[in-house]
Amino acid sequence: MTADDSFGRLDDDDYPAYTMGRAAEMLNTTQGFLRAIGEARLITPPRSPGGHRRYSRYQLRIAARARELVDGGTPIEAAILEDQLEEAQRINAEHQQGLKPGSTPPAA
């Protein structure tokens, strides 16, 4: 892998670049909260070779949304279901538009 390949990953929303400690700090939450949403399978961070969880920017956005809902009084289980429903609706809308899930629509 070249240095250019490594730097290219910085633009990848799915690249697991953040440690649990850094992710918790960025979200102004606890590592326990991140573990809880992981155990509930809202996000499934991959593990480093040393066994540490690593989070992508995409996963951090999901965690931030869950945190907003929980801070607003929504139980974590309901926050997870709400997020899963929102994701399913997004995928369904993309499917109806003839897009591959996760791709961007063509420019008009």
UniProtKB/TrEMBL annotation:
Looking up SMART domains in the UniProt record yields: HTH_MERR (SM00422)
Check the UniProt entry and state the signal peptide residues, or none.
Answer: none
User: Where does the HTH merR-type domain start and stop, copy by copy?
Assistant: 17-83
- One Pfam family per UniProt: MerR_1
What is the protein name for this chain?
MerR family transcriptional regulator
Record organism = Streptomyces microflavus (Streptomyces lipmanii)
